[in-house]
Write a structure and sequence with these properties.
2 copies of one chain form a homodimer. By secondary structure, the first copy, chain A, is α/β, with parallel strands linked by helices. In chain A, 49% of the residues lie in helices and 13% in strands.
């Protein structure tokens, strides 16, 4: 049994701005949960045409401003675009509940608060190796965290409905505040992303394709995130600079001293013991 | 069809020193490939008893010195122990072909060369989250790289037979030299290991278990190696200090500058582009 607000769900008619991997998966998961839901999409023409052909969406609009007749608007775009879309929603005086899927939350929540929108921040912790509607899946959010971010001034009824919506899509919804969200993500998402990209670049440029052929599954795991698109990540890093810099500095301090260059940093044995312990606790 | 030297394989009677995850998996894979192979094991009593009960090995000896009647000796132990075992093989004047599974190769190959043994270095690039005979699997090496490391003075017939043995166990054998091996491993194995452990420790100690609950599959991938045992890794890092330090320094230079602290390092956009390109080439 899902706590999804009944057969019609918490919203009967929703607008989705951006039918990429995340927006497209939200559409598929919403249709899976509530077969009668009406979806109105905003995206470029070829994407809209594909979505209409698949009967994934019923209608489309040329811009977010025209989403005047939906109960929920989901902004499924990169962070800087979301901030821009929030301004346009405010200028168009849209009355719908608005949520987003941005990877950082402070600047987005602040932008919405300034404009007095009925906004509830969201962040589904899910992804895939390839973006685009063609890789969207109804089960992308199943059992994945979906963080609901709203400040004290937020409309509680709207927060409850967005949480119900995320649960209906299969996710494990959890509430947090924008500061906690951005700080935690710096450590568990943004720092790992930078490390994965830097490791891929470092290893490949020093050992070449022949050397990479000698690598195993550990290296493949550690570099899977290196497929992430730089243009999306530019906006994420730019809106979380302070916490990312803090996380990066902490990581550099945690790297062990190798051989004779010890300078107060922990030895490898101590680091491995700590890491073993934390991993075991995380998996409990 | 396997090129495994026929139904009896390249060695009819083999000694395995250390029946942990790797040594135990070699025993299982050898039995899968050559049902009539005779395996003589050296390990602590409870491990030997388990292996005899499972009919995985036929005989056991109390020490490597007693492996006088086998055609191949596999040293499946941590790197410092392998170096020690090589000395004991030499002192006992053993005539078998000797190979090992150590994660670094320069010190091991040098130790064997000094003692005029018929030694062929080996390194199966395979592992699992948990060690021990109870997690050993016949398919652990299937399609995984198995690096064969021998210097110019090595007995070519012995090198060929060890390579045939590795192929028979299911692995993709490839030859290299000890210097290349250790340098490549510093980048694709030892650096990733240090990073995974340091990331696990940094993230967990700054955001706690509650914060880790907000993490996704990317973080799980990036910290899977944090389960690696520190005692084994101490020996790996100690025998590859120069290359590991070189790899770590290169990695630190590749980490992007965040915001205003640019000091000649690449921006995130450039790093992402390089990482995307290398990953795509690696997967081709």
């Amino acid at each position: 049994m899902r706590t999804d607000g009944g057969a019609d769900g918490p919203f009967r008619r929703i607008g989705i701005v951006g039918l990429g991997l995340i927006g497209g998966s939200i559409a598929r998961a919403a249709r899976r949960a509530w077969p009668r839901v009406e979806i109105v999409a905003v995206d470029r023409r070829p994407v809209i045409q594909a979505a209409l052909r698949q009967e994934l969406v019923q209608e489309y609009r040329h811009a977010v401003d025209a989403l005047v007749d939906v109960e929920l608007i989901v902004l499924a775009a990169p962070v800087p675009a979301i901030i821009n879309l929030i301004d346009r929603c405010a200028a168009a005086r849209l009355r719908a509940v608005i949520t987003d899927v941005g990877s950082t939350k402070r600047q987005i929540v602040q932008a919405a608060a300034r404009r007095h929108l009925s906004f509830v921040g969201g962040h589904p912790i899910a992804g895939a190796a390839y973006g685009g509607l063609e890789h969207a899946r109804a089960d992308l959010f199943d059992q994945r965290p979906w963080l609901i971010v709203a400040d004290a001034a937020a409309d509680r009824a709207a927060v409850d409905r967005v949480e119900m919506f995320a649960r209906g899509l299969g996710a494990s919804a959890a509430r947090t505040d924008a500061d906690t969200h951005d700080r935690v993500m710096a450590y568990v998402s943004h720092l790992p992303q930078l490390i994965a990209s830097a490791l891929m670049h470092t290893a490949a440029s020093h050992v070449g394709i022949d050397g990479l052929a000698m690598s195993g599954r550990g290296f493949a795991d550690m570099t899977r995130l290196a497929s992430s698109p730089g243009d999306v990540w530019e906006g994420i890093l730019a809106t979380n600079e302070d916490f990312v810099r803090e996380a990066l500095a902490a990581f550099l301090r945690a790297l062990p001293s190798i051989g004779s260059d010890a300078d107060g940093r922990p030895g490898a044995d101590e680091l491995f013991r700590h890491a073993n312990d934390w991993l075991a606790r995380m998996r409990q």
